[in-house]
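User: C-alpha coordinates for this one?
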Amino acid sequence: MSSFEKYHSTHALDDTQPLVCAIEGSQNMQGHTEYIIKVHRRPAPELSWHVTRRYSDFAILNATLQGCGIDLALPPKKVFGNLDREFVAERQQGLQSYLNALLGSLMLSSSLLVRQFLDPETYSTSLLQDMAHVSMFLRSEPKWEMQEAQPDIGWRIRKQYFLVKHLERPKVRYLLSRASLGPDHCLSPKDLDAVMRLLPSMQHPYIYPVEFSMGNEHGGLVIRTYVSDPGTLRDRICKARPRRTYLKKYLKPKVHNTLPLNEVKLAGRQILEGLKFLQEKGLPYGHLHASNVIVDNGCYRLTDVENHLLGLPCYYRPYITQLRKVSTVEAIDVYCFGHLLYEMVFGYSLNSTTCDNFPCSPQIQAILASILSSEACRTGLPSVSSLLSQPLFSDVPINYTEKAQFKLSSRLKEALQAAKEAMESRLKEEKKLVSKQKRISEATTKHLSEEETMKRKKKALSAAKTASRNSSDVSLVNGGASANDKLDTRTPSASVSPVPPPPPAPPSGLLTPSPEMKAVSECSTSPQSPDRSALLGSIEGFSKGALKRAETRDASAPKV
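Assistant:
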Protein backbone atom coordinates (compact mmCIF):
# COMPACT_ATOMS: atom_id res chain seq x y z
CA MET A 1 0.00 0.00 0.00
CA SER A 2 1.40 3.39 -1.00
CA SER A 3 1.71 6.26 1.44
CA PHE A 4 -0.99 8.11 -0.50
CA GLU A 5 -3.49 5.24 -0.18
CA LYS A 6 -2.63 4.82 3.50
CA TYR A 7 -2.85 8.43 4.65
CA HIS A 8 -5.28 9.98 2.16
CA SER A 9 -8.10 11.55 4.22
CA THR A 10 -11.30 10.22 2.66
CA HIS A 11 -13.53 10.86 5.68
CA ALA A 12 -12.71 14.51 6.43
CA LEU A 13 -15.61 16.76 5.55
CA ASP A 14 -15.14 19.59 3.08
CA ASP A 15 -16.76 22.59 4.76
CA THR A 16 -16.52 24.64 1.57
CA GLN A 17 -18.99 22.44 -0.31
CA PRO A 18 -22.10 24.57 -0.91
CA LEU A 19 -25.45 23.71 0.65
CA VAL A 20 -28.72 23.95 -1.29
CA CYS A 21 -32.04 23.70 0.50
CA ALA A 22 -35.75 23.78 -0.31
CA ILE A 23 -38.74 23.87 2.04
CA GLU A 24 -40.81 20.90 0.84
CA GLY A 25 -43.80 21.37 3.15
CA SER A 26 -45.05 22.00 6.65
CA GLN A 27 -46.76 20.08 9.45
CA ASN A 28 -48.85 21.09 12.43
CA MET A 29 -47.26 19.80 15.64
CA GLN A 30 -48.95 20.50 19.00
CA GLY A 31 -50.27 23.91 18.10
CA HIS A 32 -47.30 25.17 16.07
CA THR A 33 -46.05 24.78 12.51
CA GLU A 34 -42.84 22.97 11.60
CA TYR A 35 -41.31 23.47 8.17
CA ILE A 36 -39.67 20.48 6.50
CA ILE A 37 -36.42 21.50 4.79
CA LYS A 38 -34.52 19.26 2.40
CA VAL A 39 -30.80 20.08 2.39
CA HIS A 40 -28.37 18.90 -0.28
CA ARG A 41 -24.59 19.11 -0.04
CA ARG A 42 -23.17 19.64 -3.51
CA PRO A 43 -21.82 18.20 -5.68
CA ALA A 44 -22.44 14.65 -4.42
CA PRO A 45 -26.05 13.73 -5.38
CA GLU A 46 -26.45 11.24 -2.52
CA LEU A 47 -25.59 13.71 0.28
CA SER A 48 -29.02 15.01 1.24
CA TRP A 49 -31.12 15.01 4.38
CA HIS A 50 -34.20 16.59 5.98
CA VAL A 51 -34.35 18.98 8.92
CA THR A 52 -37.42 20.52 10.57
CA ARG A 53 -37.44 24.10 11.81
CA ARG A 54 -40.07 26.30 13.47
CA TYR A 55 -40.50 29.96 12.76
CA SER A 56 -38.99 30.68 16.18
CA ASP A 57 -35.79 28.89 15.08
CA PHE A 58 -35.55 31.23 12.10
CA ALA A 59 -36.16 34.20 14.41
CA ILE A 60 -33.32 33.15 16.76
CA LEU A 61 -30.90 32.76 13.83
CA ASN A 62 -31.93 36.12 12.42
CA ALA A 63 -31.44 37.83 15.79
CA THR A 64 -27.92 36.37 16.03
CA LEU A 65 -27.08 37.59 12.53
CA GLN A 66 -28.46 41.03 13.33
CA GLY A 67 -26.00 41.14 16.21
CA CYS A 68 -23.28 40.78 13.57
CA GLY A 69 -24.72 43.69 11.59
CA ILE A 70 -26.55 41.47 9.08
CA ASP A 71 -30.15 42.41 8.33
CA LEU A 72 -32.04 39.99 6.09
CA ALA A 73 -35.74 40.05 5.20
CA LEU A 74 -37.42 37.57 7.56
CA PRO A 75 -41.23 37.23 7.29
CA PRO A 76 -42.99 39.13 10.12
CA LYS A 77 -44.33 37.45 13.21
CA LYS A 78 -48.08 36.88 13.62
CA VAL A 79 -49.80 36.10 16.92
CA PHE A 80 -53.31 35.10 15.80
CA GLY A 81 -54.19 33.03 12.76
CA ASN A 82 -50.67 31.71 12.27
CA LEU A 83 -52.02 28.21 11.58
CA ASP A 84 -54.23 29.24 8.66
CA ARG A 85 -53.37 27.31 5.53
CA GLU A 86 -52.99 30.39 3.34
CA PHE A 87 -50.82 32.17 5.91
CA VAL A 88 -48.57 29.10 6.34
CA ALA A 89 -48.10 28.86 2.55
CA GLU A 90 -47.24 32.56 2.31
CA ARG A 91 -44.81 32.35 5.23
CA GLN A 92 -43.17 29.28 3.67
CA GLN A 93 -42.38 31.29 0.54
CA GLY A 94 -40.89 34.08 2.65
CA LEU A 95 -38.72 31.63 4.62
CA GLN A 96 -37.50 30.06 1.36
CA SER A 97 -36.39 33.50 0.15
CA TYR A 98 -34.64 34.01 3.49
CA LEU A 99 -32.71 30.73 3.10
CA ASN A 100 -31.76 31.63 -0.46
CA ALA A 101 -30.29 34.92 0.79
CA LEU A 102 -28.31 33.06 3.48
CA LEU A 103 -26.79 30.60 1.02
CA GLY A 104 -26.24 33.20 -1.70
CA SER A 105 -23.33 34.77 0.20
CA LEU A 106 -20.05 32.84 0.11
CA MET A 107 -18.93 34.26 3.45
CA LEU A 108 -22.26 33.70 5.20
CA SER A 109 -22.99 30.24 3.79
CA SER A 110 -19.66 28.91 5.10
CA SER A 111 -20.21 30.26 8.63
CA LEU A 112 -20.79 27.97 11.60
CA LEU A 113 -24.14 29.64 12.39
CA VAL A 114 -25.68 28.72 9.05
CA ARG A 115 -24.11 25.26 8.95
CA GLN A 116 -25.42 24.39 12.41
CA PHE A 117 -28.89 25.59 11.42
CA LEU A 118 -29.06 23.39 8.30
CA ASP A 119 -26.83 20.47 9.35
CA PRO A 120 -27.08 20.15 13.14
CA GLU A 121 -25.83 16.55 13.29
CA THR A 122 -22.53 17.31 11.56
CA TYR A 123 -21.77 20.62 13.27
CA SER A 124 -23.09 19.94 16.75
CA THR A 125 -19.76 18.74 18.16
CA SER A 126 -18.08 21.06 20.62
CA LEU A 127 -14.54 22.38 20.45
CA LEU A 128 -13.45 20.63 23.64
CA GLN A 129 -11.48 18.07 21.66
CA ASP A 130 -9.52 20.80 19.88
CA MET A 131 -8.85 22.49 23.20
CA ALA A 132 -7.49 19.18 24.44
CA HIS A 133 -4.95 19.06 21.59
CA VAL A 134 -3.80 22.60 22.40
CA SER A 135 -3.51 21.76 26.10
CA MET A 136 -1.41 18.68 25.31
CA PHE A 137 0.94 20.84 23.23
CA LEU A 138 1.32 23.40 26.00
CA ARG A 139 2.18 20.66 28.47
CA SER A 140 4.85 19.33 26.11
CA GLU A 141 6.24 22.83 25.46
CA PRO A 142 6.37 24.53 28.88
CA LYS A 143 7.95 27.72 27.51
CA TRP A 144 4.60 28.65 25.91
CA GLU A 145 1.66 29.79 28.00
CA MET A 146 -1.95 30.40 26.92
CA GLN A 147 -3.50 33.79 27.58
CA GLU A 148 -6.98 33.78 26.03
CA ALA A 149 -9.00 32.27 23.20
CA GLN A 150 -9.89 34.25 20.09
CA PRO A 151 -13.15 32.67 18.92
CA ASP A 152 -14.43 33.07 15.37
CA ILE A 153 -11.80 35.55 14.18
CA GLY A 154 -11.29 33.39 11.09
CA TRP A 155 -13.73 31.90 8.56
CA ARG A 156 -12.70 28.26 8.94
CA ILE A 157 -15.00 26.22 11.15
CA ARG A 158 -12.31 23.71 12.19
CA LYS A 159 -9.55 26.20 12.94
CA GLN A 160 -9.14 27.82 16.37
CA TYR A 161 -7.03 30.78 17.50
CA PHE A 162 -5.47 31.58 20.89
CA LEU A 163 -3.29 34.36 22.21
CA VAL A 164 -0.17 32.88 23.82
CA LYS A 165 3.07 34.25 25.20
CA HIS A 166 6.64 33.04 25.38
CA LEU A 167 8.03 32.94 28.90
CA GLU A 168 11.38 34.30 27.74
CA ARG A 169 9.68 37.16 25.80
CA PRO A 170 6.63 38.03 27.90
CA LYS A 171 6.02 41.43 26.29
CA VAL A 172 5.58 39.97 22.79
CA ARG A 173 2.16 38.66 21.90
CA TYR A 174 1.81 35.58 19.71
CA LEU A 175 -1.13 34.04 17.92
CA LEU A 176 -1.49 30.25 18.02
CA SER A 177 -3.65 28.62 15.35
CA ARG A 178 -4.65 24.97 15.39
CA ALA A 179 -6.48 23.18 12.52
CA SER A 180 -7.70 19.63 11.97
CA LEU A 181 -6.68 17.68 8.89
CA GLY A 182 -8.72 18.48 5.80
CA PRO A 183 -10.16 16.39 2.94
CA ASP A 184 -7.04 16.83 0.75
CA HIS A 185 -4.55 15.60 3.33
CA CYS A 186 -2.42 12.68 2.19
CA LEU A 187 0.98 13.20 3.86
CA SER A 188 2.04 10.64 6.41
CA PRO A 189 2.26 11.93 10.00
CA LYS A 190 6.05 11.67 9.78
CA ASP A 191 6.31 13.71 6.58
CA LEU A 192 3.74 16.22 7.79
CA ASP A 193 5.59 16.87 11.03
CA ALA A 194 8.91 17.08 9.16
CA VAL A 195 7.67 19.76 6.75
CA MET A 196 5.80 21.65 9.47
CA ARG A 197 8.93 21.86 11.64
CA LEU A 198 10.85 23.30 8.67
CA LEU A 199 8.47 26.24 8.25
CA PRO A 200 10.24 28.41 10.88
CA SER A 201 13.39 28.18 8.75
CA MET A 202 11.65 29.82 5.77
CA GLN A 203 12.95 33.31 5.10
CA HIS A 204 11.37 35.62 2.57
CA PRO A 205 10.49 39.32 2.85
CA TYR A 206 6.95 38.75 1.56
CA ILE A 207 6.06 35.66 3.59
CA TYR A 208 5.13 36.16 7.22
CA PRO A 209 7.57 34.25 9.47
CA VAL A 210 6.59 31.28 11.66
CA GLU A 211 7.89 31.04 15.25
CA PHE A 212 6.92 27.43 15.89
CA SER A 213 4.97 24.71 14.04
CA MET A 214 4.30 21.00 14.35
CA GLY A 215 1.97 18.34 12.91
CA ASN A 216 0.61 14.92 13.78
CA GLU A 217 -2.15 12.49 12.77
CA HIS A 218 -4.82 14.85 14.11
CA GLY A 219 -3.81 18.20 12.63
CA GLY A 220 -1.28 20.99 12.78
CA LEU A 221 -0.33 23.84 15.09
CA VAL A 222 1.43 27.10 14.18
CA ILE A 223 2.55 30.09 16.27
CA ARG A 224 3.23 33.51 14.74
CA THR A 225 3.80 37.00 16.08
CA TYR A 226 0.46 38.75 16.55
CA VAL A 227 -0.02 41.90 14.44
CA SER A 228 -2.94 44.01 15.60
CA ASP A 229 -2.38 47.22 13.67
CA PRO A 230 -3.52 47.27 10.97
CA GLY A 231 -3.77 43.47 10.85
CA THR A 232 -4.62 41.75 7.59
CA LEU A 233 -5.16 43.36 4.20
CA ARG A 234 -8.92 42.84 4.61
CA ASP A 235 -8.74 44.63 7.97
CA ARG A 236 -7.03 47.46 6.13
CA ILE A 237 -9.73 47.59 3.44
CA CYS A 238 -12.68 47.33 5.87
CA LYS A 239 -11.00 49.36 8.63
CA ALA A 240 -11.86 46.59 11.07
CA ARG A 241 -10.32 45.59 14.37
CA PRO A 242 -8.57 42.21 13.99
CA ARG A 243 -9.91 40.71 17.24
CA ARG A 244 -13.61 41.05 16.28
CA THR A 245 -15.48 38.04 14.90
CA TYR A 246 -15.15 37.33 11.22
CA LEU A 247 -18.77 38.10 10.26
CA LYS A 248 -18.85 41.37 12.22
CA LYS A 249 -15.65 42.52 10.58
CA TYR A 250 -16.22 41.69 6.95
CA LEU A 251 -19.78 40.79 5.96
CA LYS A 252 -21.35 44.26 6.35
CA PRO A 253 -18.48 46.67 7.04
CA LYS A 254 -19.35 50.29 7.68
CA VAL A 255 -16.55 51.46 5.38
CA HIS A 256 -15.30 50.13 2.03
CA ASN A 257 -11.81 51.54 1.70
CA THR A 258 -10.25 51.35 -1.76
CA LEU A 259 -6.46 51.38 -1.96
CA PRO A 260 -4.68 54.07 -4.00
CA LEU A 261 -3.04 52.99 -7.25
CA ASN A 262 0.52 53.10 -5.89
CA GLU A 263 -0.46 50.87 -2.96
CA VAL A 264 -2.27 48.45 -5.28
CA LYS A 265 0.85 48.18 -7.42
CA LEU A 266 3.13 47.67 -4.41
CA ALA A 267 0.88 45.07 -2.77
CA GLY A 268 0.38 43.23 -6.06
CA ARG A 269 4.11 43.07 -6.77
CA GLN A 270 5.04 41.81 -3.30
CA ILE A 271 2.28 39.20 -3.21
CA LEU A 272 3.23 37.88 -6.64
CA GLU A 273 6.88 37.64 -5.54
CA GLY A 274 5.83 35.56 -2.54
CA LEU A 275 3.76 33.23 -4.75
CA LYS A 276 6.64 32.82 -7.19
CA PHE A 277 9.02 31.89 -4.37
CA LEU A 278 6.68 29.18 -3.00
CA GLN A 279 6.16 27.70 -6.47
CA GLU A 280 9.90 27.60 -7.14
CA LYS A 281 10.57 25.85 -3.82
CA GLY A 282 7.95 23.17 -4.49
CA LEU A 283 5.68 24.23 -1.61
CA PRO A 284 2.11 24.56 -2.99
CA TYR A 285 0.00 27.42 -1.62
CA GLY A 286 -3.49 27.84 -3.17
CA HIS A 287 -4.95 29.82 -0.23
CA LEU A 288 -4.57 33.45 -1.24
CA HIS A 289 -7.25 35.92 -0.12
CA ALA A 290 -7.25 39.28 1.66
CA SER A 291 -7.41 37.72 5.14
CA ASN A 292 -4.25 35.70 4.44
CA VAL A 293 -2.11 38.76 3.72
CA ILE A 294 -0.54 40.48 6.74
CA VAL A 295 0.23 44.20 6.49
CA ASP A 296 3.47 44.60 8.44
CA ASN A 297 5.20 47.99 8.40
CA GLY A 298 4.06 48.81 4.89
CA CYS A 299 4.98 45.33 3.62
CA TYR A 300 2.41 42.79 2.36
CA ARG A 301 3.29 39.27 3.44
CA LEU A 302 1.60 35.92 2.81
CA THR A 303 0.51 33.82 5.77
CA ASP A 304 -1.07 30.40 6.43
CA VAL A 305 1.37 28.58 4.15
CA GLU A 306 0.65 25.42 6.19
CA ASN A 307 -2.94 25.09 4.91
CA HIS A 308 -2.01 22.97 1.89
CA LEU A 309 0.10 20.64 4.05
CA LEU A 310 -2.93 20.02 6.27
CA GLY A 311 -5.17 19.32 3.27
CA LEU A 312 -7.51 22.27 3.88
CA PRO A 313 -9.77 23.42 1.00
CA CYS A 314 -9.42 26.85 -0.57
CA TYR A 315 -11.72 29.75 0.39
CA TYR A 316 -12.79 30.19 -3.25
CA ARG A 317 -13.27 26.48 -3.92
CA PRO A 318 -17.06 26.81 -4.59
CA TYR A 319 -16.13 29.15 -7.45
CA ILE A 320 -13.14 27.14 -8.66
CA THR A 321 -15.17 23.94 -9.08
CA GLN A 322 -17.22 25.73 -11.73
CA LEU A 323 -14.17 26.69 -13.85
CA ARG A 324 -12.75 23.99 -16.09
CA LYS A 325 -9.39 25.69 -16.75
CA VAL A 326 -8.58 26.39 -13.09
CA SER A 327 -7.48 22.88 -12.14
CA THR A 328 -3.89 23.24 -10.83
CA VAL A 329 -2.47 24.87 -7.71
CA GLU A 330 -0.63 27.40 -9.88
CA ALA A 331 -3.85 28.38 -11.67
CA ILE A 332 -5.64 28.61 -8.32
CA ASP A 333 -2.99 31.05 -7.09
CA VAL A 334 -3.55 33.28 -10.13
CA TYR A 335 -7.36 33.09 -9.88
CA CYS A 336 -7.26 33.99 -6.17
CA PHE A 337 -4.90 36.87 -6.97
CA GLY A 338 -7.53 38.21 -9.38
CA HIS A 339 -10.12 38.24 -6.58
CA LEU A 340 -7.62 39.93 -4.26
CA LEU A 341 -6.77 42.59 -6.84
CA TYR A 342 -10.49 43.24 -7.40
CA GLU A 343 -11.01 43.72 -3.65
CA MET A 344 -8.09 46.14 -3.38
CA VAL A 345 -9.33 48.23 -6.31
CA PHE A 346 -13.08 48.36 -5.51
CA GLY A 347 -13.06 47.96 -1.73
CA TYR A 348 -15.32 44.89 -1.53
CA SER A 349 -15.18 41.21 -2.45
CA LEU A 350 -16.36 39.86 -5.78
CA ASN A 351 -19.29 37.61 -4.89
CA SER A 352 -19.41 35.73 -8.19
CA THR A 353 -17.34 33.26 -10.17
CA THR A 354 -16.45 35.62 -13.03
CA CYS A 355 -16.86 39.28 -13.93
CA ASP A 356 -16.75 41.12 -17.27
CA ASN A 357 -17.18 44.72 -16.13
CA PHE A 358 -14.25 46.54 -14.48
CA PRO A 359 -14.76 50.31 -14.20
CA CYS A 360 -11.17 51.21 -13.31
CA SER A 361 -7.93 52.34 -14.94
CA PRO A 362 -7.03 50.61 -18.25
CA GLN A 363 -3.89 48.97 -16.80
CA ILE A 364 -5.73 47.30 -13.93
CA GLN A 365 -8.74 46.58 -16.13
CA ALA A 366 -6.59 44.58 -18.56
CA ILE A 367 -5.11 42.43 -15.78
CA LEU A 368 -8.48 41.81 -14.11
CA ALA A 369 -10.00 40.83 -17.47
CA SER A 370 -7.13 38.39 -18.12
CA ILE A 371 -7.97 36.57 -14.85
CA LEU A 372 -11.63 37.03 -13.94
CA SER A 373 -13.44 37.48 -17.26
CA SER A 374 -15.61 34.68 -18.63
CA GLU A 375 -13.36 34.38 -21.68
CA ALA A 376 -10.18 34.08 -19.58
CA CYS A 377 -11.67 31.43 -17.30
CA ARG A 378 -12.81 29.51 -20.38
CA THR A 379 -9.51 29.67 -22.34
CA GLY A 380 -6.87 29.81 -19.59
CA LEU A 381 -5.23 32.12 -17.06
CA PRO A 382 -1.79 33.75 -17.16
CA SER A 383 1.06 32.53 -14.97
CA VAL A 384 2.56 34.32 -11.98
CA SER A 385 5.70 35.11 -13.99
CA SER A 386 3.68 36.65 -16.84
CA LEU A 387 1.79 38.83 -14.33
CA LEU A 388 5.08 40.02 -12.84
CA SER A 389 6.19 41.09 -16.32
CA GLN A 390 3.20 43.40 -16.70
CA PRO A 391 4.14 47.12 -16.50
CA LEU A 392 1.69 47.61 -13.62
CA PHE A 393 3.94 45.47 -11.37
CA SER A 394 7.31 45.35 -13.10
CA ASP A 395 7.80 49.10 -12.60
CA VAL A 396 7.55 48.75 -8.81
CA PRO A 397 11.06 48.69 -7.26
CA ILE A 398 11.73 46.06 -4.61
CA ASN A 399 14.75 45.72 -2.37
CA TYR A 400 15.40 42.49 -0.51
CA THR A 401 16.93 43.17 2.90
CA GLU A 402 17.25 39.46 3.66
CA LYS A 403 18.12 36.44 1.59
CA ALA A 404 15.15 34.29 0.60
CA GLN A 405 15.68 30.65 1.50
CA PHE A 406 13.83 27.44 2.25
CA LYS A 407 15.29 23.97 1.87
CA LEU A 408 13.46 20.69 1.47
CA SER A 409 14.91 17.22 1.03
CA SER A 410 14.20 15.34 -2.19
CA ARG A 411 12.03 12.86 -0.28
CA LEU A 412 9.85 15.62 1.14
CA LYS A 413 9.62 17.28 -2.28
CA GLU A 414 8.33 14.01 -3.75
CA ALA A 415 5.80 13.67 -0.92
CA LEU A 416 4.61 17.26 -1.47
CA GLN A 417 4.30 16.66 -5.21
CA ALA A 418 2.18 13.55 -4.57
CA ALA A 419 -0.02 15.56 -2.19
CA LYS A 420 -0.40 18.28 -4.81
CA GLU A 421 -1.42 15.79 -7.51
CA ALA A 422 -3.92 14.14 -5.15
CA MET A 423 -5.54 17.50 -4.40
CA GLU A 424 -5.75 18.35 -8.10
CA SER A 425 -7.24 14.92 -8.86
CA ARG A 426 -10.00 15.38 -6.28
CA LEU A 427 -10.68 18.85 -7.68
CA LYS A 428 -11.07 17.48 -11.21
CA GLU A 429 -13.47 14.77 -10.06
CA GLU A 430 -15.55 17.35 -8.23
CA LYS A 431 -15.58 19.55 -11.34
CA LYS A 432 -17.08 16.65 -13.31
CA LEU A 433 -19.88 16.24 -10.77
CA VAL A 434 -20.57 19.98 -10.77
CA SER A 435 -20.67 20.04 -14.58
CA LYS A 436 -23.05 17.07 -14.65
CA GLN A 437 -25.36 18.69 -12.11
CA LYS A 438 -25.29 21.92 -14.09
CA ARG A 439 -26.38 20.12 -17.27
CA ILE A 440 -29.19 18.34 -15.41
CA SER A 441 -30.34 21.60 -13.84
CA GLU A 442 -30.35 23.41 -17.19
CA ALA A 443 -32.25 20.58 -18.84
CA THR A 444 -34.82 20.56 -16.03
CA THR A 445 -35.26 24.32 -16.21
CA LYS A 446 -35.66 24.16 -19.96
CA HIS A 447 -38.13 21.30 -19.66
CA LEU A 448 -40.26 23.24 -17.20
CA SER A 449 -40.20 26.52 -19.12
CA GLU A 450 -43.44 27.85 -20.67
CA GLU A 451 -41.99 27.81 -24.16
CA GLU A 452 -41.01 24.16 -23.89
CA THR A 453 -44.41 23.31 -22.40
CA MET A 454 -46.16 24.85 -25.42
CA LYS A 455 -43.81 22.97 -27.78
CA ARG A 456 -44.62 19.68 -26.05
CA LYS A 457 -48.36 20.37 -26.24
CA LYS A 458 -48.14 21.15 -29.98
CA LYS A 459 -46.03 18.07 -30.55
CA ALA A 460 -48.50 15.87 -28.64
CA LEU A 461 -51.43 17.34 -30.62
CA SER A 462 -49.65 16.73 -33.91
CA ALA A 463 -48.84 13.15 -32.87
CA ALA A 464 -52.48 12.56 -31.96
CA LYS A 465 -53.65 13.82 -35.38
CA THR A 466 -51.11 11.64 -37.15
CA ALA A 467 -52.17 8.60 -35.13
CA SER A 468 -55.84 9.26 -35.92
CA ARG A 469 -55.09 9.57 -39.64
CA ASN A 470 -53.06 6.37 -39.63
CA SER A 471 -55.88 4.59 -37.82
CA SER A 472 -58.35 5.62 -40.54
CA ASP A 473 -56.02 4.36 -43.25
CA VAL A 474 -55.65 1.04 -41.47
CA SER A 475 -59.45 0.70 -41.17
CA LEU A 476 -59.88 1.21 -44.91
CA VAL A 477 -57.25 -1.36 -45.69
CA ASN A 478 -58.79 -3.87 -43.28
CA GLY A 479 -62.26 -3.26 -44.82
CA GLY A 480 -60.98 -4.11 -48.31
CA ALA A 481 -59.34 -7.23 -47.01
CA SER A 482 -62.62 -8.37 -45.43
CA ALA A 483 -64.51 -7.94 -48.70
CA ASN A 484 -61.92 -9.98 -50.52
CA ASP A 485 -62.18 -12.66 -47.84
CA LYS A 486 -65.98 -12.80 -48.42
CA LEU A 487 -65.50 -13.19 -52.14
CA ASP A 488 -63.02 -15.97 -51.61
CA THR A 489 -65.54 -17.98 -49.57
CA ARG A 490 -67.77 -18.39 -52.62
CA THR A 491 -65.13 -20.15 -54.69
CA PRO A 492 -64.68 -23.90 -54.33
CA SER A 493 -61.81 -25.01 -52.27
CA ALA A 494 -58.88 -27.01 -53.54
CA SER A 495 -60.36 -30.20 -52.01
CA VAL A 496 -63.40 -30.21 -54.37
CA SER A 497 -63.04 -32.50 -57.40
CA PRO A 498 -62.49 -30.70 -60.71
CA VAL A 499 -65.40 -29.99 -63.02
CA PRO A 500 -65.82 -32.81 -65.63
CA PRO A 501 -65.34 -31.87 -69.27
CA PRO A 502 -68.47 -31.09 -71.33
CA PRO A 503 -70.10 -33.90 -73.35
CA PRO A 504 -69.06 -34.35 -76.99
CA ALA A 505 -70.76 -32.28 -79.61
CA PRO A 506 -73.85 -33.86 -81.26
CA PRO A 507 -73.36 -35.51 -84.65
CA SER A 508 -73.87 -33.37 -87.65
CA GLY A 509 -77.23 -33.51 -89.42
CA LEU A 510 -79.39 -33.46 -86.32
CA LEU A 511 -82.01 -30.79 -85.83
CA THR A 512 -81.17 -27.70 -83.85
CA PRO A 513 -82.22 -28.27 -80.26
CA SER A 514 -85.00 -26.23 -78.74
CA PRO A 515 -84.29 -23.61 -76.01
CA GLU A 516 -85.58 -26.01 -73.38
CA MET A 517 -83.11 -28.61 -74.57
CA LYS A 518 -80.31 -26.02 -74.44
CA ALA A 519 -81.11 -25.31 -70.82
CA VAL A 520 -81.15 -29.01 -70.01
CA SER A 521 -77.86 -29.43 -71.83
CA GLU A 522 -76.27 -26.58 -69.88
CA CYS A 523 -77.46 -28.03 -66.61
CA SER A 524 -75.96 -31.36 -67.55
CA THR A 525 -72.52 -29.85 -67.46
CA SER A 526 -72.63 -29.67 -63.69
CA PRO A 527 -72.01 -32.70 -61.54
CA GLN A 528 -75.17 -34.87 -61.25
CA SER A 529 -76.43 -36.84 -58.30
CA PRO A 530 -79.00 -39.73 -58.70
CA ASP A 531 -81.95 -37.57 -57.54
CA ARG A 532 -81.00 -34.87 -59.97
CA SER A 533 -80.84 -37.37 -62.83
CA ALA A 534 -84.36 -38.62 -62.01
CA LEU A 535 -85.68 -35.08 -61.96
CA LEU A 536 -84.11 -34.31 -65.32
CA GLY A 537 -85.55 -37.50 -66.77
CA SER A 538 -89.10 -36.65 -65.67
CA ILE A 539 -88.78 -33.20 -67.14
CA GLU A 540 -87.62 -34.57 -70.49
CA GLY A 541 -90.50 -37.06 -70.65
CA PHE A 542 -93.20 -34.52 -69.77
CA SER A 543 -96.15 -34.35 -72.23
CA LYS A 544 -99.00 -31.89 -71.97
CA GLY A 545 -101.41 -34.19 -73.70
CA ALA A 546 -101.12 -36.75 -70.97
CA LEU A 547 -102.68 -34.42 -68.45
CA LYS A 548 -106.32 -35.14 -67.38
CA ARG A 549 -108.98 -32.50 -67.61
CA ALA A 550 -109.86 -31.17 -64.17
CA GLU A 551 -113.49 -30.55 -63.08
CA THR A 552 -114.22 -27.67 -60.67
CA ARG A 553 -117.04 -27.79 -58.18
CA ASP A 554 -118.26 -24.36 -57.07
CA ALA A 555 -119.29 -24.61 -53.42
CA SER A 556 -119.47 -20.91 -52.86
CA ALA A 557 -123.17 -20.58 -53.70
CA PRO A 558 -125.50 -20.42 -50.70
CA LYS A 559 -127.60 -23.41 -49.79
CA VAL A 560 -131.35 -22.91 -49.49
